[in-house]
Amino acid sequence: MGRLCSPKCRLGRVMGWLQILLGGLVIAVSIASLFKFYSAGFFLHHEDICQHFYHVSDADDGFDLRALSDRVGEVLDRMDKLQEKLEKTVQEMEKSKVDLGKTTMTRLEHKRFLEQEVIRPLYGAHIALRQIRLPQADGIRNSTMKEVPLMNTFIVEEIRKYITPKENRVGNMNIYGTERIYNTIGHACVLMKKELEEYMDYDIGSYCKDDWSLSQKLMVNGCDPLPRRRCLTRASKVYQKPYPINESLWRLPDDRNVRWSNYQCRNFQCLSSKNPKRGYSKCIGCFEMDKEKLKWVTNSSLAVDFLIKDVLAIKPGEIRIGLDFGVGTGTFAARMKEQNVTVVSTALNLGAPFNEMIALRGLVPLYVTLNQRLPFFDNTMDLIHTTGFLDGWIDLMLVDFIFFDWDRILRPGGLLWIDRFFCNRKDLDDYMYMFLQFRYKKHKWALSPKSNDEVYLSAVLEKPPRAI
């Protein structure tokens, strides 16, 4: 029995030692791997390791690697398309070589073909390659000059010139206390690269294209502030001087003072609420002065309609300057002007020339969107009035950011007039919290039904002192 068991025992011993050896090898490799990870800072959340494993960012201290890769890929695509076009042209010439000798292509046509189909695409690809900014040889972290943000994103030269930092000529600090000026564009412009490059593609010093609708599209989609342009704005060829101030407030402007090419209507009479095809729907009767004259000065059957004289009576003599944030033709500012109160009106040309209408009435239009921080300093406005723009469609987080910006520019003791805000009944509590979270003093507060499911809310609230 011992002789029969001996080979099996030897095999068992060999297998046992082999398992022990392999187990030790696995442990050694595991320890070595863990040591390498620890040395690299993996367990300490080292920045480079985190970015490598979790793809936190494609930017390296201001240098956008993803944009660089996209630019190189874009140039290669251009070269591939040019090569395909030339090969296709040669193949077509080969197929029709029997008739090729009979063609009478002039030198001018041949020259035009070479310029448009060969030289221009090659030149464009060449320039695009030369414009790619690479990190400096010593490494970005050791460089005193940061790479220009977004530089490798855009191809149009005018955009690149705009976002390049402008050094002070005298070499000293400028009035802002900086060594250079960085012109800004909204980060959402990268998502609308094609539209922005179309907007900035012009001949310097010449007339701009009639493309205000393109710029407004960029603004509304978050590409704001837009870059400045070095072209001349077009105006109506038959522009007439505005009416005198006392006459302009309550009279429709001259039709010749507006560029109508991007509207459905071609005159102010067409914008009447009686015309179902006027091209806008947000403010009914805005271009009918007889109806506009009745707003905020005549009694209404709705409790949410406050009168200007009653609101001004809350702070006699203290309301001097204000902001009207909404959609309209400046009627609120016109009425306040009659009370010696200066009001700036926000406006977008949503289907009609609202900005031109406000200006031609002798009032001040502020061309801004909801995305933009208001260009006023802290604690400066006596009054903020809003109507017709903010209602139940707006996201609660967005309205929160907007209200905090309003609170920033409204001075202590200033009034916030929420005029005819409406929303679904089920959402009213959420919006009321947004309005009341700042602990403003209530001067006026009224609710009225708008429909079976919707409700109006109007309020006049006073900002507290908040002394520190």
What's the architecture of the domain at 245-462, going by CATH?
3-Layer(aba) Sandwich
Please state the overall shape, judged from the principal axes of the Cα atoms. Answer: extended
CATH class category of the domain at 245-462: Alpha Beta
Provide the helix percentage.
25-40%
Could you give a short account of the major beta sheet? 7 strands, mixed
Count of distinct strands? 11
Main sheet strand line-up: 7-6-5-8-9-11-10
The Cα radius of gyration reads 34 Å
Task: Report the structural category.
Answer: alpha/beta
User: Order of SSEs, N→C?
Assistant: HHEEHHHHEEHHHHHEHEHEEHEHEE
Strand content: 5-15%
Report how far apart the termini are. Answer: 99 Å
**Low-pLDDT sequence parts:** 47-57, 137-145
Mean pLDDT level? 83
**DSSP summary: helix tally:** 15
How would you summarize what this structure contains?
It is found in: Endomembrane system; Membrane. This protein is α/β, with parallel strands linked by helices and 468 residues long.
